[in-house]
């Protein structure tokens, strides 16, 4: 059994599959803490978790100036420790809402396939400069990352981002060995993972052991045949993965974490307290969160909890809260949230128009139906 050496996991995580292990934390807990505790961070594995012996581990770079292999000791001792607080979100977060429109292929994620942590390690830019490689002048089109987890045919999990994007993010990409001040947990990439803040989860390669430049994208299944968007009429008979752009920076999203779908509020309640998260890709900060207690007819502004980051380097999520009046005399109502990022990007009001066969990028207004006993 290739899954016989899996790590121990919190019994509070809600699995969507066991082998490989995939799970999200209970959504009610998600907005309680700005930094998601490591054992509550959602897990998205495509393959068995590799067992890494730290004494034999190396990070192998393939560069025009040579092919250095760095030990874990070198990485932690020879470079300054840099940190970035970033939310990581699976492209399939909130997929279960898309499934209600039409079936899709993918794990049936709720709204908690996203978490937020402080990642620390070596700056990718500083690492490359040590070997006289400058991201700004490298002649290639993509930077490729590979993990130690492998498919039955021996090919590793891999991902890439365009070099142009790596240049934009230059000082913010981190080869992380710590998560919230602790060594990376096995499920999250021990001993190393790349953190490319503002970019989709699929590119945050865990168990990272290879970095190289290439004239083409990573050839991995997950770069070429997955994690892409399509129009709502594309189906498995006419889909052409080669013609669609790989997902990198993600669109603006939000969700109500509390109350939850179907919840019964206090008898005769006149107000409801909503809590949740909002986040946008590309480091675009959240400038406003709108909430409604009547299905989107009237709106209120939620109170944002500042994430301490600047508008164009806002990689962490923004948690928010709102106390809003409930419609009078109704025994049930629909709570809604939508967020606005610093580029004034907004979320689509419904999921039908953004439906796609893999169920990615499900960022419509988030709706939660509650009961209000009179
Ligand atoms: N890296 C490796 N090596 N193998 C994987 O299966 N899954 C990716 C990414 N990095 C994956 C990986 C996907 S799709 C996501 S959403 C994130 O890791 C999930 O990160 P997490 O499990 O730390 O939440
Ligand atoms: Mo993912």
From TrEMBL:
Gene Ontology CC: one annotated term: mitochondrial intermembrane space
This enzyme's EC code(s): 1.8.3.1
Localization (cell): Mitochondrion intermembrane space
Biological processes, Gene Ontology terms: sulfur compound metabolic process
UniProt keyword annotations, A-Z: Heme, Iron, Metal-binding, Mitochondrion, Molybdenum, Oxidoreductase
Pathway(s) per entry: Energy metabolism; sulfur metabolism; Sulfur metabolism
Cofactor requirement: heme b; Mo-molybdopterin
Keyword flag Metal-binding: yes
Enzyme kind, highest EC tier: oxidoreductase
GO MF annotation: an example: sulfite oxidase activity
Protein's name in the database: Sulfite oxidase
Organism: Elysia marginata
Portion of the parent chain present: 222 to 595 of 598
């Amino acid at each position: 059994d290739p899954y016989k050496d899996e790590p121990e996991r919190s019994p509070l995580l809600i699995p969507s599959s066991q082998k490989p292990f995939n799970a999200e934390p209970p959504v009610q807990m998600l907005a309680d803490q700005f930094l998601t505790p490591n054992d509550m961070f959602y897990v998205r594995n495509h393959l068995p978790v590799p067992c890494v012996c730290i004494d034999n581990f190396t990070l192998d770079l393939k560069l025009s100036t040579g092919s250095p292999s760095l030990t874990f000791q070198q990485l932690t001792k020879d470079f300054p420790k840099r940190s970035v607080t970033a939310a990581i979100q699976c492209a399939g977060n909130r997929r279960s809402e898309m499934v209600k429109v039409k079936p899709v292929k993918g794990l049936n994620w709720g709204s908690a396939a996203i978490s937020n942590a402080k990642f620390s390690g070596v700056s990718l830019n500083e690492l490359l400069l040590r070997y006289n490689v400058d991201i700004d002048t490298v002649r290639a089109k993509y930077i490729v990352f590979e993990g130690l987890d492998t498919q039955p045919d021996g090919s590793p999990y891999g991902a890439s981002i365009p070099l142009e994007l790596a240049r934009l993010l230059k000082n913010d990409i981190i080869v992380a060995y710590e998560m919230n001040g602790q060594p990376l947990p096995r499920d999250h990439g021990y001993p190393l993972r790349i953190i490319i803040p503002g970019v989709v989860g699929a590119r945050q390669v865990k168990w990272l052991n290879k970095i190289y430049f290439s004239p083409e994208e990573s050839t991995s299944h997950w770069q070429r045949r997955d994690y892409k968007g399509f129009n709502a009429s594309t189906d498995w008979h006419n889909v052409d993965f080669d013609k669609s752009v790989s997902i990198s920076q993600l669109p603006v999203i939000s969700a109500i974490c509390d109350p939850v779908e179907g919840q019964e509020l206090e008898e005769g309640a006149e107000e409801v307290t909503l809590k949740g998260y909002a986040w946008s890709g590309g480091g675009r900060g959240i400038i406003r969160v709108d909430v409604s207690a009547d299905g989107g007819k009237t709106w209120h502004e939620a109170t944002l909890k500042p994430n301490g980051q600047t508008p164009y380097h806002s990689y962490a999520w923004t948690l928010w809260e709102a106390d809003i009046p409930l419609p009078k005399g109704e025994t049930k109502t629909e709570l809604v949230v939508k967020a606005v990022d610093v580029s004034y990007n907004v979320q689509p009001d419904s999921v039908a128009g953004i439906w796609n066969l893999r169920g990615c990028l499900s960022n419509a207004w988030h709706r939660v139906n509650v009961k209000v006993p009179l």
